[in-house]
Design goal:
- Helix 6 (about 150-155) links the parallel strand 5 (about 140-145) and strand 6 (about 160-165).
- The chain has a 7-stranded parallel β-barrel, surrounded by 4 helices. A two-stranded antiparallel ribbon has the order 7-8.
- It is about 40% helix and about 20% strand.
- By secondary structure, the chain is of the alpha/beta class.
- It starts with a strand and ends in a 6-residue tail after the last strand.
- The protein has helices at about 25, 45-55, 80-100, 115-120, 125-140, 150-155, 190-205, 230-245, and strands spanning about 5-10, 30-35, 60-65, 105-110, 140-145, 160-165, 205-210, 215, 220-225, 250.
- It is built from 8 helices and 10 strands.
């Protein structure tokens, strides 16, 4: 088994006077930052500040685009015509890439956010639209997508470099999708429980559902959601435990 793994977090999700997450602490811990592009969270100043901090920490950066849903934090399902969705995604990637260029940083990956990601994981046509937007903008970008998803498959079939991720703090259904946040068992709470969840999946190279169903998959990255109250403690605990267990934590381009 390849003993290299990436640790990523969704960052830059503050907006104006509203603060979300503990970005500085997470940037000292993770290998890759998925930075909000203004459509579910983030604003130009937050984007630029996050990029500067990521550069100082030596953390790889990627775009974290979403549906145009600032009020709903990108978690509300939307139906957009394919051409409009492609334009929305290209707009967001271009915004972050431009900010990154101004800060001397290269944007290396894309990870869709929230409802967009969840829907593209099960809707092959939507997944192909997302992938088409990424290819149109920069076919060299890495697609960071949930393991066992239609989005990951669409990216690979289109020739994108793909990395399959699992979530340290989210539970899975038997079909490989995330347990809806409306259910009480959707979240994995606490650093210890998250480590047990991740370690079991890494050991078996499989998604493991709440009912014990195994879905074999390669795993390249582990995500800790930056907006959770346990995010920093969980990320640090995972990093230290995985390192002790012989895993090398690396950037996405080193997988």
């Amino acid at each position: 088994m390849n003993r290299r793994i990436n640790l990523n977090a969704d960052l830059g999700e503050s907006f104006g006077a509203w603060t979300m997450g503990s970005d500085a602490e997470l940037l000292a811990t993770v290998n890759s930052a998925n930075i909000a592009c203004g459509f579910h969270a983030g604003d130009p100043l937050v984007m630029r500040t996050t990029l500067r901090h990521a550069r100082a920490a030596g953390v790889g950066v990627g775009a974290h685009p979403s549906f145009p849903d600032l009020q709903g934090f990108g978690r509300r399902p939307m139906q957009l015509p394919p051409a409009e969705l492609e334009a929305v995604l290209i707009y967001q990637m271009a915004a972050l890439a431009g900010m990154a260029q101004a800060e001397g940083v290269k944007m290396g990956h894309v990870k869709p956010h929230g409802a967009l990601s969840n829907m593209a994981c099960t809707d092959a046509a939507l997944a192909r639209t997302v992938v088409a937007a990424i290819r149109a903008f920069d076919a060299d970008l890495i697609l960071l997508a949930p393991a066992c998803s239609a989005l990951l498959t669409a990216g690979a079939e289109a020739g994108l470099r793909v990395v399959a991720e699992i979530f340290a703090d989210r539970a899975y259904q038997d079909d490989g999708s995330l347990v809806p946040r409306s259910r009480p068992d959707a979240m994995i709470h606490g650093a210890g429980a998250s480590l047990a969840h991740v370690s079991a999946m890494l050991a078996e190279q499989a998604l493991i559902s709440v009912n014990g169903v195994r879905r074999p998959t390669p795993i390249g990255s582990v995500c800790v959601h930056g907006d959770g109250p346990d995010a920093v403690a969980t990320a640090r605990f995972l990093r230290d435990a995985l390192t002790r267990d012989g895993w090398a934590l690396v950037g996405l381009d080193a997988l």
